[in-house]
Structures are given as structure tokens and as C-alpha cells.
């Protein structure tokens, strides 16, 4: 499985094991052979390749076609499934699930949450507390996603100092760079922040874009459309 970095979504091909006797301890993650070993899963099955420079806890499951490399760290009973990759200085912990061909990279952190399909969490972004990132969504820069029931999908891009929490749904081609009120549904447009955000206790910054408000946006209840600037 050859893993290369792209701006918005990961690419997978075929990495190879060396034919030399030392091959059992080397693997090409896409930038030449490095020392690595197959992870042994909690059930005793053979898992994916983990670089010697990375760390994966013994109670983590790593699919045979998944990979953990660079200086990445995976702690606790997490699942790195299918062709997913955790790389660079990324951190995955507390039962998080990374699946599909998703990537967690840079100094990003995913804790107790799900990143799946072709989604990418990168840079210094954090996804925590049961948030769900899917499809071709990209979460980067200093963005923060916090669940539970917070979902980002489609081709959405969450970046800058974005803060998305409280069951918010962001889909389509939405671009979010600011704080969104809890329980919103963002169907498109751009959400901008005028000031950096220190955390969820700070009042929401003025935003622009198409925002749909709902108490429980994922349950199909009627919603109303509002726009603020």
C-alpha cells in the first residue's frame, strides 16, 4: 500500500516488502524503506505495518492493509481499519476509529471519535468526544470538532480557528472557519470568524453563510433558514 500526501484526500497504492533477509523488518510507506513490523492485533491476528518510529498500543486493532508511520501515536483500544493511515506526529486515542482510506496526519489529534471514508484530519486539528468525519471532508489548521452527534461530511472543509460542536451537522461544499452555534446544520456557503476563538465558552463570532438552525438536526425535524453577517 503506497501512501502519499495530497491536499484534500489520501491516495492509496501498493507499497512493497523488501526481498532481502532484513525485509521482515522494513517496509516502504511511500518514501523509501524504513524499519517497521507488522502489528499483532488483540485477537492474535496479523495487523498492518507500523514503523519503528511510531507507536501503537497492544489493545489497538490495525487492519492488515492499514498503516501507522512517522512519529504517530495510537493509544488504547482504537481501530485503524481498511486502508486508513495515521502518520507524521498525529495522535489517535480513547477508542477512536479511523477507517476507509481516511488519514490522520500532521499534529492532528482524534480522540474517541470516527474518521472514515476518504476524510482527512491534518495540521493541528482536534476531533474529540464522539465527533464523526466522513466522505471527502477535510479538517485542518487549528479547527476543533467536538461531539457527540457532531458530524462533518460531503466535501466540507473545516479550517482556521473553527469550532464545531453540540450536534452540529456540516455537509455539502461548506467551508467553516469560525464558530457555529450548537445544533446548527450548515448546508453550504462559508462561515467566517472575525476573531480567534479561545474555546466553546466564548460567544460565537459573527458569521456569514447559509446556516440552518435546529434543536435536533439529525432527526429530520422541521428547520428554518437564517443568515447572519
Detailed description of the structure:
This protein is mostly beta strands. The chain has a domain at 3-122. The chain contains no helices and 30 strands. The protein has strands at residues 3-4, 11-12, 26-28, 33-40, 46-51, 55-56, 61-62, 67-68, 73-74, 79-80, 85-86, 91-93, 97-98, 103-104, 109-111, 114-115, 120-121, 126-128, 132-133, 138-139, 144-146, 151-152, 157-158, 163-164, 169-170, 175-176, 184-188, 190-191, 210-213, 224-226. The protein has an 11-stranded mixed beta sheet with strand order 3-4-5-8-11-14-17-20-23-26-28, with no helix packed on it. A 10-stranded mixed beta sheet has the order 7-10-13-16-19-22-25-27-29-30, with no helix packed on it. It is elongated and about 50 Å long. The N and C termini lie far apart (46 Å). 44% of the residues are buried.
SSE-based structural type: mainly beta
Radius of gyration computed on alpha carbons: 19 Å
Low-confidence stretches: 4-23, 194-229
Quick check: average pLDDT? 81
The beta-strand count equals 30
Write the layout of secondary structure elements.
Blueprint: E1 3-4, E2 11-12, E3 26-28, E4 33-40, E5 46-51, E6 55-56, E7 61-62, E8 67-68, E9 73-74, E10 79-80, E11 85-86, E12 91-93, E13 97-98, E14 103-104, E15 109-111, E16 114-115, E17 120-121, E18 126-128, E19 132-133, E20 138-139, E21 144-146, E22 151-152, E23 157-158, E24 163-164, E25 169-170, E26 175-176, E27 184-188, E28 190-191, E29 210-213, E30 224-226
Parallel strand pairs: 5-8, 6-9, 7-10, 8-11, 9-12, 10-13, 11-14, 12-15, 13-16, 14-17, 15-18, 16-19, 17-20, 18-21, 19-22, 20-23, 21-24, 22-25, 23-26, 25-27, 26-28
Antiparallel strand pairs: 1-2, 3-4, 4-5, 27-29, 29-30
